[in-house]
Amino acid sequence: KGRPGLALGIVVGTWLFAELEADGLILVMAALIIFILLLDRLHLIERISALLPIRSPLTATTLAAIGSTAGTVCGGGTVYFLVVYFKLVCRTAQTLRGTNIAISGLFVITRVAAIAVTGLIAPRYLIEAALLLPVVILGTWSGSRSFHRSSPERFYLALQILLFLAALALIGKGLFAVL
Q1: How far apart are CA 118 and CA 113, in angstroms?
Q2: Position 179 pLDDT exceeds 80
Q3: pLDDT, tens digit, 9 for 90 and up, residues 106-160
């Protein structure tokens, strides 16, 4: 339902990504991650869903556009910004995880194409990324094993802790670069 919003967000996000300075991007990414964590911890999307038809094409497209713009701007992956929405519409943790993996793959392909067109990526880095594919496969395999051994509550908590630690690291890196 939200595909037009995703596409628009990726295009707008890529343009903003190209325009912002690197140090500013780091701090923007940290702020966005903390914002998403607050959305989830304070159940703000659930509150919004009581007021809006969360599965309607307009709502899905709007949230997808916001999420994909934010994710593309900071290069952190749109799915992290859509996970609060996915958590609401996916009936099980397994569906959420599967959706995350499938959408992430689609976004990577789209984002690489968009960034390549803008000239922001060198072929050398694409080759290096391809060489890391075995590590990605191993990470997916070990993540799947861990996921199946944990409860949905632990899965969501681990995801939130991981995102919070990433945000703290980005804040530190951004402040160090600015100061």
Answers
A1: 9
A2: no
A3: 777 877 787 778 777 788 887 888 898 899 889 888 887 887 788 878 877 887 8
Identify whether the C-beta of residue 59 lies closer than 8 Å to the C-beta of residue 109: no
**Distances in Å between the alpha carbon of 143 and those of 49, 108, 113?**
30, 19, 27
Tokens encoding 147: 């996921």
Encoded tokens for 20: 């912002």
Given a contact cutoff of 8 angstroms between Cβ atoms, the answer to whether 88 and 46 are in contact is yes
DSSP codes, the chain: --HHHHHHHHHHHHHHHHHS-HHHHHHHHHHHHHHHHHHHHTTHHHHHHHHS-TTSHHHHHHHHHHHHHHHHHHTS-HHHHHHHHHHHH-SSHHHHHHHHHHHHHHHHHHHHHHHHHHT-S-HHHHHHHHHTHHHHHHHHHHHHHHHHHS-HHHHHHHHHHHHHHHHHHHHHHHHHHH-
pTM of the model: 0.58
Q: What angle do CA 49, 50, 55 make, to 5 degrees?
A: 40
Q: How far apart are CA 41 and CA 36, in angstroms?
A: 9
